[in-house]
Design a protein that fits this description.
Blueprint lengths: L4 E8 L11 H16 L8 E5 L2 H4 L5 H8 L7 E4 L3 H13 L5 E9 L5 H4 L16 H14 L5 H14 L17 E3 L2 E2 L8 E10 H7 L4 E10 L13 H10 L8 E3 L5 H11 L6 E2 L14 H14 L5 E8 L5 E8 L4
Parallel strand pairs: 2-3, 2-4, 9-10, 9-11
Antiparallel strand pairs: 1-7, 1-8, 4-7, 5-6, 8-12, 11-12
Length: 349
């Protein structure tokens, strides 16, 4: 790469079970103002804007155009949108900056899951001919994956409970988390997953600013340089996949350079405790790596923003000197179908 791109600022909302009193624009605007304030930039200073969201959550077509009111689209801006998690919007913005067409980019994502039935909404991402007509919801599919891990001897229910407990204990230091501290493991939602193994349903938003080369150093005292970024996809049909492994995560990590040197931190987008087991194996993470110090998706899981938050949280640790080399992961689709891996580094101290 001829240019070096860094995350120079990150902001997120407080994640809540419901935000009935707020529109998507009203939920997003404070986050956009905060992330711009961290750099001193104004909207007119941003070379490219890219967002991630889902019209299925909003229940109306082209809902993302509404949130451009919060960005400010006049005078005209260079803008794009992905119908996916904001982490994939960051991939597009990173690619744009690499071409030299812009020096700065604003990436944001948001999701209001509270108005409808999220488990039903997520069935619309399944294969429309063989799987979607059966209406298996997101928790049922995650339970299939968890049971496959149990049957293979890769984990057990006590180990899964420990993952949930550790994540929510870590979230006590995260003022934006929806759940933190001791959370009962609870009853089975779909066996073998209990309430404590599943993510909370809630609303939230996040934003990051990317900058290139010397511009990044001007805007941030310690930029989080993106040393590698890659995403890969598993087969759409669940029946042809080994749910106990994630080859796409492993390949994305390899292409992003994650295995070249050890990382000290990993922010994993694992909405279910069982998925952390799969990701740790694919990413070759040892016990010395701090995993999800923010609490991860088990503490707050705003759909379409949770993956971007993993990148933002990893970058924020580099900004404040708590990490030198961090890995961030984002996923989309059932049972870790699509996976993105980013490797972030700070300048030597």
């Amino acid at each position: 790469m001829t240019r070096q791109i860094a995350v120079v600022a990150f902001a997120q909302s407080d994640h809540r079970r419901t935000t009935d009193e707020l529109s998507e624009v009203e939920m997003l605007m404070p986050v956009l103002h905060e992330v711009l304030a961290r750099t001193g930039l104004k909207t007119a200073d941003i070379g490219f804007t890219c967002s991630g969201s889902s019209d299925y959550l909003a229940g109306r077509a082209f809902s993302f155009t509404m949130t451009l009111d919060g960005v400010g689209a006049w005078p005209p801006i260079s803008e794009s949108h992905v119908e996916m998690d904001g982490a994939f919007a960051l991939y597009e913005a990173w690619s744009k900056l690499l071409t030299g067409d812009a020096d700065t980019a604003l990436v944001y994502a948001y999701g209001k899951s509270s108005p409808g039935s999220l488990r039903d909404v997520l069935t619309r991402q399944l294969d429309p001919y063989y799987l979607a007509p059966l209406w298996p919801d997101s928790v049922a599919l995650a339970a299939l994956q968890a049971q496959a891990l149990l049957d293979a001897g890769a984990t057990d229910e006590n180990a899964l409970a420990a993952i949930g407990a550790r994540s929510r204990a870590a979230a006590t230091a995260n003022p934006h988390a929806q759940l933190n501290g001791p959370v009962p493991q609870g009853d089975y939602v779909v066996r073998p997953l209990r309430t404590g193994d599943c993510p909370p349903i809630g609303d939230g938003a996040a934003a990051v600013i990317l900058a290139a080369d010397d511009r990044a150093r001007e805007l941030c005292e310690r930029p989080a340089w993106i040393r590698g970024l890659d995403h890969r996809v598993e087969p759409h049909a669940l029946g042809v996949r080994d749910l106990t492994d994630s080859p796409s995560t492993r390949l994305a990590a390899e292409r992003a350079g994650a295995f070249e040197r050890p990382v000290d931190t990993a922010e994993l987008h694992a909405p279910f405790s069982s998925q952390e087991v799969v990701l740790r194996k694919a990413l070759r993470l040892g016990e010395e790596v701090v995993v999800n110090p923010s609490g991860g998706a088990l503490a707050a899981n705003p759909v379409m923003a949770a993956g971007l938050i993993r990148i933002g949280e990893a970058a924020a640790r580099i900004h404040r000197g708590a990490s030198d080399r961090a890995l961030a992961h984002a996923t989309s689709g059932p049972c870790l179908q699509q996976n993105l891996v980013a490797v972030l580094e700070g300048d030597p101290r």
